[in-house]
Amino acid sequence: MYVAFLGQKQQLLYQQIEMIYNKEDLSLTRKEMTNQQKEMQKQNETLELQKFENLFFQLLSNYQNNKMSFYTIMDLNLFQNFMTIYKRLLLEVNYSFYTEDQIAKTAYLKTLDEVSMFEITFYYQIDSILKFIHNSNNSIDKTLYVNILKTALSKTEKECLKLIYTFDGNVISNDKININQSGILDDIQLPIVVKQEG
Predict the structure, then answer these.
(1) Spatial contact of 94 and 107, defined as CB atoms under 8 Å apart
(2) Distance in angstroms (rounded) separating the CA atoms of residues 11 and 17
(3) What is the pTM of this model?
C-alpha cells in the first residue's frame, strides 16, 4: 500500500510538473500570438499608407497635368494673368457707394469675363484632394499631406483659389469645408481695396 501511495504521489508530482510546463507553453503561445497580431497590424497600417500615398500622389499628378494643359498655355500662365487683371480692375472699379467687398467682388467677376479661358474647376480638384486627405484613415498624418499639397501650389494659384473661395457665387458652403479644415489659405492675403478720393 505504501509503495502504491508513493507511486500515486510521484505520478501526481509528474502531472503537476507537466501542468506547469503546459501553462508555460500556453503563455508563450499567447505572447507569440499577440506579437503576430501586432506584426499583422503594422503590416496592415503599412499597406494602408502605401494605398493612401499611391492615390494621393496620383490625384496630385492629375492636378499638375491638368494645370499644365489648361492653365499654362505656351508662355501664358493663366493664374498670373488672372491676378494681374484682377489687380488692374480693382483700381478701375471705384464706385464711391460700393463697400470694399463689393468693389473686390465686382473686380473678380469682371476679371472672369475678361479672362474667358480661366476656369474655376481647379478649385474643385484641390477640394477633392483635401477631402480625400480628411476622409482617410486616422493613422495617416493628414497635416503632412496637406502641407505637401500646399507646397505644390504656387502663391498665385493660392491667391486665385482664395478669390474663388471668397467671391464666386457658384462655390457653396459645402465646397468650402475642406479648404477651411485644411487651413491651406490661412496665410494668403488678397490685394487690398484702396478707394480713390474724388
Answers:
(1) no
(2) 10
(3) 0.78
Report the C-alpha gap between 161 and 196 in whole angstroms.
Answer: 27
pLDDT in tens, 111-157: 999 998 899 999 999 999 999 999 998 888 999 999 999 999 999 99
Number of neighbouring beta carbons within 10 Å of residue 187: 9
Counting Cα atoms < 13 Å in the Cβ hemisphere of 3 gives 0
Which amino acid appears at position 48 of this protein? E
100-114 and 155-167 are packed helices; what angle lies between their axes, rounded to 10 degrees? Answer: 110
181 and 165 Cβ atoms separated by less than 8 Å: no
Q: Are 99 and 138 in contact (CB under 8 A)?
A: no
Cβ(63)–Cβ(122) under 8 Å?
yes
